[in-house]
Specification:
Blueprint lengths: L1 H26 L7 E2 L10 E6 L6 H12 L4 E2 L2 E6 L2 H10 L5 E4 L17 H7 L3 E4 L2 H5 L8 H14 L2 E6 L3 H5 L3 H15 L8 E5 L13 H18 L2 H6 L1 E4 L5 H8 L6 E4 L7 H6 L4
Length: 296
Amino acid sequence: MQFVKKIGEEAKKVSDKVEAKMEKIVHKGRPKGLSVGEPAADGERTYLIGGNWKCNGTMASVAELVKTFNDAGPIPANVDVAICAPYIHLGVVLSTLRADIAIGAQNSGLSEKMGAYTGEICASQLVDAGVEWVIIGHSERREGFGMAGEDEELCAKKLKVALDAGLKVMFAIGEKKEERESGVTMDVCAKQLEPAAELLSEEDWANVAIAYEPVWAIGTGLTATPEMAQETHKSIREWVAENVSAEVAKAVRIQYGGSMKGANAKELLAQPDIDGGLIGGASLKADFFNVINGVL
């Protein structure tokens, strides 16, 4: 027994050394960034502001945006920030973006291991590169764009694969305009969450944020009122309490993703069940930091 214990201790030492080395490699050359204020108190959820650059950015424009963010001043200590960049720009942001902004991808594959999957990127490759977050289930991928969309079962499977590989996941759900108008918003969200609830353990949920994105508000300039968004977020949290556990429901962060920007972030983030945002267009501008500072 002592031998087994010793082997375990040595293995942990090796693991810690590897992790420290990878951390050093990933953050080499990245500015440290600045923090202001106090972290979230015990029992409170830390905000999560994610930027989704979608299929945007040239090498030149990304370099300029990185400089803008690096010079943007401190990030509140009660906020986690992540930028989800296109695959071709991950290397740039991993080596030059301030280290207090985590790096994410916008998708990862269904395959658990590398192999003959032309055009795919698997979750383990993202982890190996130093990526921390990934978006799974975005409405644009659920709907498809000139190709078949990803259904609820596929999104849930990809979510589980990403978590098992060591990624944190922003799991996106949300309804279309006609579904909102016909009063089935929560039915749609529940249908998208159910396969995930079946696959995930309670421990898995510690690395999941639910990104509620009303499809009708993405990129349209339309935004749910803070009261509308809060109502849906509250319903999502209640669904998690009933179908996963009360503990997970209390801890899980629920982001709002319908055209949040600096002008409306403060009101939205003041709602008790809105724990951050998944930001599209505004994350490609200096306005992204106005969203981040909306928690103040």
